[in-house]
Amino acid sequence: MATASERLNRVMPSKFPTPYTEIFALGSQLFFDPVLSGNDNIACATCHHPALRSGDAMSLSIGYGRLGLGRLREVVNGNAPKACISRNALALFNLGAWEFSVMFHDGRVHLNREPMYGVAMPDDRTLERTVPTAFAAQNILPILS
Ligand code: HEC
Asked: Could you tell me if residue 24 is inside a domain?
């Protein structure tokens, strides 16, 4: 079993790509900003909120067309979405570290030598350039969906 200091070492800065300060600040802001969603009403943090341990505390995530966080998320103006997401939102803490090479419940995004740019992606979502980690590749998908 790892000691407390061994566990702490796992999240040292050397375990992550070097952050560019400007990109880091932009990413932090966009994470909480619904501007990335098609209809301006949902942000990454809606389903991955720090107050809910970077998840949404739901067994199945509720997407656009509602207001609020987690179990308090409710329909607005009778405008219920046609479908829920069929999986729960995973926690995101530290996933940018080099060691995390597989993303999603089913691992559909993962580091792999065969595909172009070294990351296996869903067929209709191929990468157009190199990204530093599987986490960076995954982050493109919520915006596209
Ligand atoms: C509507 C809710 C919702 C929103 C909004 C959302 N996510 Fe997610 N996220 C999920 C769900 C559900 C999963 C698990 C999906 C699966 O495994 O198929 C997930 C999975 C992930 C994962 C994979 C974690 C792992 O351990 O494999 C990452 C990373 C992630 N989301 C980042 C983001 C980012 C970045 C944004 C914004 C650009 C975002 N999410 C917006 C619900 C959401």
From this structure: yes
